[in-house]
């Protein structure tokens, strides 16, 4: 089959799965998950076929797989949409296919397929356990199956469709379509357990916060379209077009068109990839089931934001040659700031997923900062490695939570929070597979030297920042890396090492193969993937060519140069990684049950600040949410519409009857009725009454009058008739 | 012959006497008598004009005969009315017969 | 190839109404089905019309012209181009669905159905008329049945106050406001039409399109006014009449009241079609007849459009009445239509203007579908819960999951989710307006943001959250008749969102021609 045909078909199986499950197989759990996993498998196979064909093509960047069709009629022309698989998209397909498939398989186990229905389970709430009676008549509380099992698979199917669409798009419009569909799915999935007010609120928060970014992005897309007459990447990223965009000033005179469009599109990424200041939705998104967190926060949605900016990098970087354009400056600033900012918050979080959430925000900051300093390949590299190890970590945390819930069912204490790391401990013995894979992921996240993928990608970013002379970015990112290693060690130590701190932790159990297999697969990538991107001149040696750099770098028309190896960034990477890991382990290794966080006392005020996320939610509530509600209800509706406009209209409403009654009172009644109607009657009456006295009935009087009038007439005629 | 004007003055005088009678007599029959006088005065006038101005023509005579007839008819009717009223009201005073008033 | 297809489409509803007139008034089932089947005939005919329409041929097709008032030079002239064809399809599609939705009306079914069918004739006539007097007649015909529908079959509860002491039932208030307000605009319309007719000697649109914009000398100038004054008066009269109908902010306040108090099917047609009459008037009459004046005032119109988008979204977000929230969403969505029209007026003849118009007309169609769907869904839950207050609902999703799914789908179409129809039209409007009216377009994004907010607010209160115990066991799932009403809408919403070519090509051809012939 032609490669282009396969590419067109890749996003379709999950979409089909969505419709089939929603419309038909909703009630039958095994059929629903089979359709979903089968669909993910089909897309996976398609993606792998395309990927392997793609890496076999010489200079894929110059002749990628592409095809397009007419979609929207626009006057004399039309907008085309289509598919494009260049090196970037090929890599994208690779990591999306693997992570999505693993997450689908994991979800079967996570939602406790095969377990009985819960005692009090209701659709809209997380399952709470079922009571099983065994052969001896003993009651056991066991995990129960998710009531809305099939719906979950439908939604993640739609999600996968969105991501695949985004990756293979050859134009900004269908990229945006995939983007928004994923936004929808994140809403549906974060709010999966919709009966929980927290989940409901988190879903809305996610949607609205990303929407802020999306509306700016939409403007950017419209602007780009109106300037170039197309939205296809290949057509826009040609030298002539880019030059034109870079040289003309935009509607805001301080920016070139390319600069303004770049900024507008980047704001979309700020929202979608949860960069400061639009990061607030991501930690709350932990309300969703864990596979959702893995999907949204590792493999797909947040990656989409970074993927998009990588895609439009030619637009963002045009005009500055080897310096920074305004868009790149913004990215450098926001990216590095976010990386450090989020890392500080992660240090003080107790919830195992929340640490990972802030970690994601921080790592995405890394990628954005990388692009900001022009490290195109490094950003793409980190995107892929991060997808693998972060998905691994999230799925691992889900496994941990499942294990803890086993313990909760055993003790029956539902008030305990199974996600609080301070309630865990010693889980390495109870859940070995989870432990080792989580360790692999954690080490990758921390950039443990040489053997983890995270090391290679992070180091490349640091090296790039250093080599191009961006000291501040380098320092900030290094500091963030230190904190990253620190909180990762903190997390692993609290969760797995030491002794169990609670009864629940003591009774934790390893999770089924549907959950541990994906962990193992992802761990392999978390360790091995980095080796495809080892720089040629690493440590001054002459190693084989950096395949990743060559391949992905070929996406750009002017492939970026590999940077010269330098010992300083390498040393920094070593120090921050090992140092942070060591420090984290050392501080937390002795934490006992019921004790507070060892950092609380030493950091004092600072600890309160970072624990409370630097009070962003509270500030936003005061600054945006409450005023928005006031504007809506009080101002727009009650004041403007009801009081002002309707008040004005009601004046007319009152004017009508007022005019009517005035007319009646002042004209109709007195003049027409009174004067003319009754008046004439009165006049006639008076006249009659006064004149009637002439009628005396006396004949002689009548005759007298007749005589008098005859005489008068006679006199009149005598004097007027001319002879 | 005596001048025409004497006849005319005579008839005018007679007419005025009749008119005076009509206007001032109480008795309804007397009023009718007055009307008769007026009619006869008119007749005298007519005959005088006929005799003096156009003796050959017959229009004057014819007119006078008409007036006789009308006078006779009118008196007959008038007296019948008066008698009818008298039977009802037991009075022939004109002023008392004033039902046809406002 | 029936030669009088348009007349057939136009008067079949009236015939159906006539048939209904002779049916016994207490046979509710018979009346309902007769009305439904009667309203399906124009739908079938308009689908046939769609297939026979030649997209590549510019100008009006299926024209019919018969002498009407010879002394005035007014004829019975019908015809469709891409714009009116789209609107005819929308009308004939929504009416059977609205009739089907009205099956739950039990009180005085016969007059209700008759009024509905007469309303359909009125609406179709506006879209098909190519003669100004005919246009006006049908325009007015569309008003009266709606007044009665709201007044007699509208919501029973509620009161509005005019002054502190003067209170009227809500549906009386709403119907009256709707009728008087729009009729006030129509008066100006009548005046303007008469002026045009008298001054140029013809009422026929196809002739006026060529004649009126370039007119230098009038035949019988009323009151001896100069040409410019006549044109200006007529222009403003047109604009006011159509602005009231669309409705353009700040003339929009009749809409929330009328939509909220109308019966479900009434709201469906009101939002689905009647609002489009105003926009259609702008496109068919104001832009082609007054290109210069329209250009001069396009900035003002764009300002009003932006206010509608923003204030409509804000007001919707501040609502706790479900139906009123959806009503304000109509103000918000029609704002995009007006923005597109303003952009086209400002830069007529450019390709950007065509794109903006494509977006505007497609938005008219799309909004018809999604608004009708949303109002219907509000009606579904209202019939069961007898309340529209969002605070009274709560966590209904587990109790009525099918309804919930359909509600989410339709709400997302209303929100403009890519993949569904709303996105295509909004994107085209934004794309078209950005180069022409940059600031209003940028500001309208605020409205787009809050659109998301209010849609999610509605879903949050109705479906999500802890289930309100009042409704457990007291609320029934959406039934098959109701699903049947929604399915065509949902299919079209998805289809247009994924592959809009079939309708966009028709609209594009018409708008392209319109822009080219305007200058």
User: Unreliable runs of chain B, pLDDT <50, ≥5 residues?
Assistant: none
Computed structural class of chain B: mainly alpha
Strand-residue fraction of chain B?
under 5%
Query: Distance between termini of chain B?
Result: 54 Å
Assembly type of the chains comes to heterotrimer
Overall helicity of chain A: 55-70%
Count every helix of chain A, treating DSSP H or I runs of 4 or more residues as helices.
29
How many runs of DSSP E, i.e. beta strands of chain A?
A: 4
Distance between the termini of chain A: 132 Å
For the largest interface in this structure, which chains are involved and how many residues does each contribute?
A-C, 60 and 68 residues
What is the radius of gyration of chain A computed over CA atoms, rounded to a whole number of angstroms?
39 Å
- Major sheet details of chain A: 2 strands, antiparallel
What's the count of strands of chain B? 0
Architecture (CATH level 2) name of the domain at 27-91 in chain B:
Orthogonal Bundle
Computed Rg of chain B: 17 Å
Strand content of chain A: under 5%
CATH hierarchy, class of the domain at 27-91 in chain B: Mainly Alpha
Largest sheet of chain B: none
CATH topology of the domain at 27-91 in chain B: Helix Hairpins
Shape annotation of chain A? elongated
Low-confidence stretches of chain A: none
How would you describe this structure in keywords?
heterotrimer, A: 723 residues, mainly alpha, two-stranded antiparallel sheet, two-stranded antiparallel ribbon, elongated, B: 102 residues, Helix Hairpins
Topology:
The complex is a heterotrimer of chains A (723), B (102) and C (519).
Chain A lengths: L2 H7 L2 H12 L5 H27 L9 E10 L2 E9 L1 H24 L19 E4 L5 E4 L6 H20 L3 H19 L6 H32 L4 H4 L2 H9 L9 H16 L8 H4 L5 H10 L1 H11 L1 H5 L8 H21 L5 H21 L3 H36 L15 H4 L1 H15 L6 H15 L3 H25 L7 H4 L6 H16 L18 H7 L13 H22 L11 H4 L1 H7 L4 H76 L7 H22 L3
Antiparallel strand pairs in A: 1-2, 3-4
Helix pairs in contact in A: 1-3, 2-3, 2-5, 3-4, 3-5, 4-5, 4-12, 4-17, 4-23, 5-6, 6-7, 6-13, 7-10, 10-13, 10-15, 12-17, 13-16, 13-17, 15-16, 15-21, 16-17, 16-21, 17-19, 17-20, 17-23, 17-24, 19-21, 19-23, 20-21, 20-25, 21-25
Chain B lengths: L3 H21 L3 H26 L5 H31 L13
Helix pairs in contact in B: 1-2, 2-3
Chain C lengths: L4 H17 L6 H25 L8 E9 L4 E7 L1 H20 L7 H20 L3 H10 L1 H11 L5 E3 L5 E3 H31 L4 H7 L15 H19 L8 H8 L2 H26 L1 H27 L4 H25 L4 H35 L15 H15 L5 H16 L1 H25 L17 H19 L2 H18 L1
Antiparallel strand pairs in C: 1-2, 3-4
Helix pairs in contact in C: 1-2, 1-4, 2-3, 2-4, 3-4, 3-11, 3-14, 3-18, 4-5, 4-6, 4-11, 5-7, 6-7, 7-9, 7-10, 9-11, 10-11, 10-13, 11-13, 11-14, 12-13, 12-17, 13-14, 13-16, 13-17, 14-15, 14-16, 14-18, 14-19, 15-17, 16-17, 16-18
């Amino acid at each position: 089959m032609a490669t282009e045909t396969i590419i067109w078909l890749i996003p379709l199986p999950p979409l089909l799965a969505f419709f089939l499950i929603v419309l038909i197989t909703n009630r039958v759990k095994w059929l629903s998950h089979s359709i979903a996993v089968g669909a993910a498998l089909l897309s996976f196979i398609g993606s792998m076929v395309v990927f392997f064909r793609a890496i076999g093509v010489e200079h894929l960047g110059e002749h990628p797989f592409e095809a397009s069709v007419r979609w929207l009629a626009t006057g004399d022309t039309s907008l085309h949409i289509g598919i494009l698989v260049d090196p970037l998209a090929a890599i994208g397909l690779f990591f999306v296919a693997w992570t999505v498939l693993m997450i689908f398989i994991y979800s079967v186990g996570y939602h406790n397929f095969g377990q009985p229905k819960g005692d009090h389970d209701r659709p809209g709430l997380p399952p709470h356990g079922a009571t099983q009676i065994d052969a001896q008549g003993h009651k056991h509380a066991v995990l129960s199956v998710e009531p809305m099992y099939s719906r979950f698979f439908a939604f993640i199917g739609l999600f996968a469709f969105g991501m695949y669409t985004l990756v293979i798009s050859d134009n900004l419009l269908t990229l945006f379509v995939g983007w928004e569909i994923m936004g929808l799915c994140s809403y549906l999935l974060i709010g999966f357990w919709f009966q929980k007010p927290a989940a409901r609120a988190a879903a809305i928060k996610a949607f609205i916060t990303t929407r802020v970014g999306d509306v700016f992005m939409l403007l950017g897309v419209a602007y780009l379209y109106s300037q170039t007459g197309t939205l296809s990447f290949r057509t826009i990223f040609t030298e002539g077009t880019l030059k034109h965009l870079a040289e003309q000033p935009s509607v805001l005179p301080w920016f070139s068109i390319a600069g303004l469009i770049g900024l507008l599109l980047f704001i979309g990424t700020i929202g979608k990839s949860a960069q400061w200041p639009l990061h607030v939705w991501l930690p709350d998104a932990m309300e969703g089931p864990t596979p959702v967190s893995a999907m949204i926060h590792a493999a797909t949605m947040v990656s989409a934001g970074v993927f998009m900016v990588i895609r439009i990098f030619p637009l963002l970087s045009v005009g500055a040659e080897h310096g920074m354009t305004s868009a790149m400056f913004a990215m450098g600033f926001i990216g590095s700031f976010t990386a450090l900012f989020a890392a500080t918050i992660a240090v003080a979080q107790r919830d195992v997923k929340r640490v990972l959430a802030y970690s994601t925000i921080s790592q995405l900051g890394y990628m954005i900062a990388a692009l900001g300093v022009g490290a195109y390949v490094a950003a793409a590299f980190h995107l892929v490695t991060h997808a693998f190890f972060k998905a691994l970590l999230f799925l691992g945390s889900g496994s941990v939570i499942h294990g803890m819930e086993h313990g909760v069912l055993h003790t029956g204490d539902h008030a305990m929070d199974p996600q609080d790391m301070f309630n865990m401990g010693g889980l390495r013995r109870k859940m070995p597979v989870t432990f080792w894979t989580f360790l692999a992921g954690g080490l990758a996240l921390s950039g443990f030297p040489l053997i983890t993928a995270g090391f290679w990608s992070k180091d490349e970013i640091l090296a790039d920042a250093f080599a191009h002379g961006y000291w501040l970015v380098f320092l900030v990112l290094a500091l963030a890396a230190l904190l990253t290693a620190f909180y990762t060690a903190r997390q692993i130590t609290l969760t797995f090492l030491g002794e169990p701190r609670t009864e629940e932790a003591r009774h934790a159990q390893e999770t089924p193969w549907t959950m541990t297999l994906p962990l193992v697969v992802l761990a392999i990538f978390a360790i091995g993937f980095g080796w495809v991107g080892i720089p040629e001149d690493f440590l001054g040696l002459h190693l084989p060519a950096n395949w990743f750099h060559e391949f992905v770098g070929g996406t750009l028309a002017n492939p970026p140069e590999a940077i010269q190896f330098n010992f300083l960034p390498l040393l920094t990477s070593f120090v921050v990684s090992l140092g942070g890991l060591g420090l984290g382990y050392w501080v937390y290794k002795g934490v006992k049950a019921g004790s507070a966080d060892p950092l609380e006392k030493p950091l004092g005020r600072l600890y309160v600040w970072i624990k409370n996320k630097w009070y962003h939610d509270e500030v936003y509530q005061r600054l945006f949410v409450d005023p928005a509600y006031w504007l809506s209800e009080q101002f727009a509706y009650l004041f403007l519409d009801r009081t002002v406009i309707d008040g004005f209209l009601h004046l007319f409403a009152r004017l009508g009857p007022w005019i009517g009654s005035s007319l009646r009172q002042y004209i109709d009644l007195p003049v027409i009725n009174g004067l003319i109607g009754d008046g004439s009657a009165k006049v006639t009456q008076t006249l009659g009454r006064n004149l009637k006295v002439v009628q005396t009935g006396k004949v002689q009087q009548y005759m007298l009058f007749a005589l008098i009038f005859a005489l008068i007439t006679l006199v009149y005629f005598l004097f007027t008739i001319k002879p | 012959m005596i001048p025409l004007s004497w006849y005319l003055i005579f008839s005018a005088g007679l007419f005025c006497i009749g008119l005076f009678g009509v206007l001032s007599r109480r008795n309804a029959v007397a009023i009718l008598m007055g009307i008769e006088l007026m009619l006869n005065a008119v007749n005298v006038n007519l005959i005088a004009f006929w005799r003096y101005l156009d003796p050959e023509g017959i229009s004057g005579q014819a007119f006078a005969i008409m007036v006789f007839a009308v006078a006779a008819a009118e008196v007959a009717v008038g007296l019948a009315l008066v008698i009818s009223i008298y039977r009802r009201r037991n009075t022939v005073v004109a002023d008392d017969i004033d039902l046809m008033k406002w | 190839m029936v030669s009088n297809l348009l007349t057939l489409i136009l008067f079949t509803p009236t015939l159906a109404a006539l048939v209904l007139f002779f049916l016994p008034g207490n046979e509710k089932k018979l009346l309902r089905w007769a009305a439904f089947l009667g309203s399906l005939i124009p739908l079938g005919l308009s689908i046939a019309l769609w297939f026979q329409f030649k997209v590549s041929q510019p100008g009006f097709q299926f024209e019919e012209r018969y002498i009407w008032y010879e002394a005035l030079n007014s004829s019975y002239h019908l015809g469709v181009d891409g714009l009116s064809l789209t609107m005819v399809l929308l009308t004939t599609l929504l009416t059977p669905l609205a009739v089907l939705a009205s099956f739950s009306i039990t009180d005085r079914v016969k007059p209700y159905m008759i009024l509905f069918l007469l309303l359909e004739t009125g609406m179709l006539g506006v879209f098909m008329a190519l003669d100004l007097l005919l246009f006006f007649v049908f325009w007015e015909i569309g008003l009266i049945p709606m007044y009665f529908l709201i007044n007699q079959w509208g919501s029973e509860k509620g009161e509005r106050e005019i002054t502190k002491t003067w209170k009227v039932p809500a549906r009386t208030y709403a119907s009256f406001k709707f009728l008087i307000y729009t009729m006030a605009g129509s008066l100006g319309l009548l005046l303007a039409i008469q002026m045009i007719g008298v001054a140029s000697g013809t009422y026929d649109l196809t002739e006026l399109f060529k004649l009126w914009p370039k007119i230098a000398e009038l035949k019988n100038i009323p009151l001896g006014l100069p040409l410019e004054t006549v044109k200006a008066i007529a222009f403003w009269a047109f604009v006011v009449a159509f602005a009231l109908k669309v409705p353009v902010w700040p003339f929009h306040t009749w809409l929330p009241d009328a939509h909220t108090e109308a019966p479900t099917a009434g709201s469906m047609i009101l939002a689905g079609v009647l609002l489009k009459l105003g926009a259609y008037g702008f496109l068919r009459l104001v832009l082609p007849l007054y290109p210069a004046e329209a250009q001069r005032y396009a900035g003002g119109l764009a300002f009003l459009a932006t206010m509608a988008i923003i204030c409509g979204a804000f007001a919707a977000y501040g609502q706790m009445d479900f139906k009123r929230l959806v009503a304000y969403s109509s103000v918000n969505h029609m704002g995009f239509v007006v923005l597109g029209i303003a952009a086209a007026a400002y830069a007529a003849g450019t390709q950007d203007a065509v794109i903006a118009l494509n977006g505007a007309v497609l938005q008219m169609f799309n909004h018809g579908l999604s608004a009708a769907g949303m109002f219907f869904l509000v009606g579904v839950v209202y019939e069961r819960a007898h309340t529209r207050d969002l605070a009274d609902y709560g966590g209904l999703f587990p109790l009525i999951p099918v309804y919930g799914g359909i509600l989410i789908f339709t709400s997302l179409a209303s929100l403009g989710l890519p993949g569904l129809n709303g996105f295509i039209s909004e994107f085209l409007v934004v794309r078209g307006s950005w180069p022409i009216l940059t600031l209003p377009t940028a500001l309208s994004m605020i409205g787009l943001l809050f659109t998301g907010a209010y849609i999610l607010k509605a879903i949050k209160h109705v479906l999500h959250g802890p289930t309100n115990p009042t409704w457990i066991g007291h609320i029934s799932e959406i039934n098959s008749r109701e699903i049947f009403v929604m399915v065509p809408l949902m299919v079209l919403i998805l289809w247009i969102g994924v592959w809009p070519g079939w309708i966009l090509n028709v609209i594009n051809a018409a708008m392209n021609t319109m822009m080219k012939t305007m200058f």
